[in-house]
Amino acid sequence: MSPSPATTRVGRSLRRSTRWLRRAVGRRLRVDPRALAAFRIGLGAVLLADLLLRSRNLVAFYTDRGILPRSLLEAKRPLISQLSVHALSGDILLQVGLFLVAGGCAVALLVGYRTRVAVLLSWLLLVSLHARNPLVLNGGDSLLRRLLFWGVFLPLGSRWSLDALAGRVRDRARSGTGARGRVVGVATAGLLIQVVLVYATNAGFKLGSGRWLSGKALAYILRLDEFTTPLGAALAEVPALLGVLEVVWLGLLVASIGLVATTDWRRGLFAGLFVGAHLWMAATMRLGVFPFVSVVALLPFFPPGVWDRVSAAAATVRASSVIGRLPPWLSLPKGEEERDGGRDEPQGELAGRWQRVRARSRKAGQAAGVVLVVGLLVWNAAAVGLVEAPDGVPGSLDPAEDSWDMFAAPPTRDVLVLAPAMTDDGGQVDALHGGTVRWAPPPDGAAWYPTNRWRKYLRSVWATDDPAVLHGVADGLCHRWSRAHDSHVETVSLYAVLEPTELDGDGPVRREQLVTHSCRG
After folding, report:
1. β-sheet bridge partners, residue 497
2. Taking the model in full, what pTM does it have?
3. pLDDT tens for each residue of 12-38
4. In Å, what is the CA distance from 418 to each residue of 20, 59, 174?
């Protein structure tokens, strides 16, 4: 029995609608391979910068002689501690070795050498490093892990890389050929959606904050001495300008879905506005590598026209300078597509079996990718409370830790954690900064903490009421002092100096004691 004309028309209409929907979604989830190359270079540069900054506090943060020995980590975060290769030993030699290996992988990622292996190892080592001391992490660290994860499944080395130059690339853009070819699939969907979710969830938190809706949030944030740069402090004196910038930023966050809803130059314009906002943050606030991680995350959103101009500018520079004598990594010859490294495809019956295996593997990979994207959406929904998270065990992973609520509720006070220590001869020294103890907050915000990681850690310590954590920090400062000086200290105390921030000036300073610890055991 043949179908009726009405049924046939409905079937055709459904097929046309399905094809239109697939094309529309594909246009919004595809990425230029040169954007992925820039993304790869950015990831490598950020990883290197992050490792160099962390290396300043390698002993303090990642060894048993520091402020978070493995015994304390295992007691407080038993599940997370099992994920860390860095926690296999508390000795400094292992940490130095792992930092060097991670640096080598970051360099390989930067230049595109054995890119797939480099990004996988970089991700694994970063997860391990973060698990070794989760108390020094921020939203940028969480985003960086996710960017590397999706990068494992993307052809990051297909352009502007040593792999492309040597003909080792086997990743082919799914649609089109040459420089205009695009990459589209579950991995590009996961990467782009993850970035949008960061902004969308942050917008949700800010819309629930009375301070952001009142237009005074930036004014309060830029009065936090421990965060603000000299430029930020100067802008804090121009409240009218801050009010305008706050409305623009909140509007961008609310409209962040436009990063995937638009295409071509409109998407590029959207991404450019976000990049400008993050560079403004880097200039006005001490946020470490966080703004630059965000800039790298936005690179895949830029359309082919942007990368055409980048390639043309690079070609001009090569032709007119000494760079022209270097290998042309910045572009492949016109019309050349990725090569397969000279490997022959199997022939005959074996070829048929091989093709079937590859087809099944692709389908399994796509199914797994869909599950990962759905899991990503559910995890972020649980982080903002839209979905109830399952009850966890102590030390388990918590979606609330990835809630992307950065500055949704601006802090209302500066917090300076001090560590006065008593020496053998009865004197008092500053075990954190060295020298004499300065109970009044310093006028220069950069002097409040040794590094951004120290600020994050000590603010976390101040917020906790766990005696084991407080004593662990004090004990680590005991060891830190004895390594840096010929003398020992008898006790180390932790104090928090609290300075309320108001739009018309700082409030009265208050001091509270957190713990006193004996360095003699």
Report:
1. 416, 511
2. 0.82
3. 666 666 666 667 777 788 899 999 999
4. 62, 20, 57
